[in-house]
Amino acid sequence: MTATSFPESHGNVPEKPVTISEFGAQKALGILSQSGKENAGVRVFIKSGGCSGYQYGMAIDDRELDGDTIVHDRGVKLLVDHMSLSLLRGSEVDFVENMMGGGFTVNNPNATSSCGCGHSFRTDGAQSPDGEGSGGCASH
């Protein structure tokens, strides 16, 4: 299996499965430029856990793995693995600042509920994977 790539939008390009906001892109580009990794991007992924069943994760990654979907949006390369893509399709990565500081978040149209801290979510009718997800937000 090979990677699927979505270039920057110019005209009639298929809709990107994942995007990043303007502010999120500014923050990501700053972090990527300081990472010291050539051709690095932001890997966005889903893992089981969190108080709502699934938990978002993000990391700076300079590897493109088999099965990855690679999206170039607002100058940022977003990498999503095959397993996470169905739960992230249509999502937007954003950066939010508040009184507690700031951080990246995912605006996910597939999430039917999420915990108060905004790091975990559940999809419609989905059980928590492996019986996880009963803990509170402090368990992140």
Task: Give the secondary structure arrangement, pairings included.
Elements: E1 4-6, E2 18-20, H1 22-34, E3 41-48, E4 54-61, E5 69-73, E6 76-80, H2 82-88, E7 91-98, E8 101-107, E9 111-114, E10 120-123
Parallel strand pairs: 1-5, 2-7, 3-6
Antiparallel strand pairs: 3-4, 4-10, 5-6, 7-8, 9-10
InterPro entries: ATAP (IPR016092), ATAP_core_dom (IPR000361), FeS_cluster_insertion_CS (IPR017870), HesB-like_dom_sf (IPR035903)
Protein name: Heme biosynthesis protein HemY
Pfam family, one: Fe-S_biosyn
Descriptive overview:
This protein is mainly beta and 140 residues long. The protein has one domain: HesB-like domain (Hypothetical Protein Aq_1857, Chain: A). 14% of the residues lie in helices and 39% in strands. The strands form two sheets. Strands 1-5-6-3-4-10-9 form a seven-stranded mixed sheet. A hairpin with a 2-residue loop joins strand 7 (91-98) and strand 8 (101-107). The longest helix has 13 residues, at 22-34. It is globular and about 35 Å long. The termini are far apart.
